[in-house]
């Protein structure tokens, strides 16, 4: 059974940093693109970052570009999201999800999802 488990969410002050981890099991992660999504109450789900299985091409939403960095370690079946310069508007439940090979746009094309980890940025 495929399972993605996110961790690393926490309560942090504005300007702080967190590193989220997404550990995959039951899947050969090398063949999959992995994206980070987030959703805050009252807002639509937002794809904020993605890393492909081909050439480690990356995508970042404008809202996080320059502050967040996605990376992967296939040997550890893990994808990371380094989040710096956190803002209150980054507060959300963060999910990782997989798609075959490429960073597709539609969330429906991501077939495996984690349960999410909560990030709260507040003073």
CA gyration radius, whole angstroms: 13 Å
Low-confidence stretches: none
Compressed to H and E, one letter per element, the order equals: EEEEEEEEEEE
Q: How confident is the prediction overall: mean pLDDT?
A: 95
Describe the global form.
globular
Approximate helicity band: under 10%
- Indicate the structural class: mainly beta
Strand content: over 45%
Q: Report the total helices.
A: 0
Characterize the biggest β-sheet: 7 strands, mixed
Per DSSP E runs of 2 or more residues, the count of β-strands stands at: 11
Give the N-terminus to C-terminus distance in angstroms: 40 Å
Account of the protein in words:
- The protein has 123 residues and is mainly beta.
- It has strands at 3-7, 11-12, 18-25, 32-39, 46-51, 58-60, 68-73, 78-83, 92-100, 112-113, 117-121.
- The strands form 2 sheets. Strands 2, 4, 5, 6, 9, 10 and 11 form a 7-stranded mixed beta sheet that branches. A 4-stranded antiparallel beta sheet has the order 1-3-8-7, with no helix packed on it.
- Strand 7 (68-73) and strand 8 form a beta hairpin.
- It is globular.
- The protein starts with a strand and ends with a strand.
Quick rundown:
The chain is mainly β.
């Amino acid at each position: 059974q495929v399972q993605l488990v996110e961790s690393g969410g926490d309560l942090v002050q504005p300007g702080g940093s967190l590193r989220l981890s997404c550990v995959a099991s039951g899947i050969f992660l090398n063949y999959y693109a992995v994206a980070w999504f987030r959703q805050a109450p009252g807002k639509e789900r937002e794809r904020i970052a993605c890393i492909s299985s081909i050439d480690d091409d990356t995508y970042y939403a404008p809202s996080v570009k320059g502050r967040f960095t996605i990376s992967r370690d296939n040997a550890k079946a893990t994808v990371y999201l380094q989040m710096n310069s956190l803002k209150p508007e980054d507060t959300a439940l963060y999910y990782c999800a997989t798609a075959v090979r490429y960073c597709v746009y539609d969330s429906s094309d991501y077939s495996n999802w984690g349960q999410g980890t909560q990030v709260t940025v507040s003073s």
